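Handout, section B. The chain below has 301 residues.
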Amino acid sequence: MRWFSIIALTSIFFTITAEVSSAGDFQLKDGDRVIFLGNTLVERAQEYSEWESQLSQAASGKKIIFRNLGWSGDTVWAESRGLFDPPAVGYKRTQELIQELKPTVIVIGYGTVESFRGPEGVDEFVAQYQQLRKDLLKTNARLIHLSPILMEAASFPKLAEGVNERVETANKNLNLYAEKVREISAESGELFIDFRDAQRNKAEGTLWTENGLHLSRSGYAETAKVLTQQLGGTVSQKDNPELKELIRRKNELFFHRWRPQNFTYLLGFRKHEQGQNAVEIAQFDPLITELEAQIQKQLSP
């Protein structure tokens, strides 16, 4: 019994130590290059700029670059990223882009779309999430994991029949997948940011989503607070529309930089027709750099 107690106490001590040290390790530092990688939750964050605005203000005085690689409806298999190619091609293309961007921090947001597979799909999800994590670690970046957000029955159209039961089932599956992400991050000593706790504890009658599934502006504002606090920053209570607009414009330019609308002609299977015009994509770079300089100026005391 005595040996058991010593072992148990030692295990608790090292667990607590690991949690404290990992939280410090994942604070944003001067010179960090942060990539947001994930599904609709991540892609739509560009529209409101709340995440990047709060994180940037909390890190005022540090030069941090953010790149959003979110893709609506995406999964850990990159099922949305293949375009006219198989998902494996989109996955490979994304990994190459990430290597090119040389990130020091990668924020991963997956699990929502995959949760529609139900309990039967959990094992496949875990296996691929682990593979994705392994591939991302080749960049030597610090990995941060996001939980999915929960659905809100009150935000769905009132005419939808059986919405409460459907949302209850969906959230049960979302929680199942979110807990798997938590386990993976805990085993790896990496930071897991759980949006669900704040969502469950929000003021009665307030909603985070605009349609039951996708965050509204206020939802992104609330999740931005969670992100900032979990990364050791202080949440700004001052709204800065000029900063948000600069961030939005910068992200829009970068979006066109890595996801040109005529991708198939420039880089895909029809590049033999207009592939010579792909050289123009790099012309976005100085425009992005200029906007980032303006963002830094906004953040200066």
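Note. The chain has a mean pLDDT of 87. Compare this with the example in section A.
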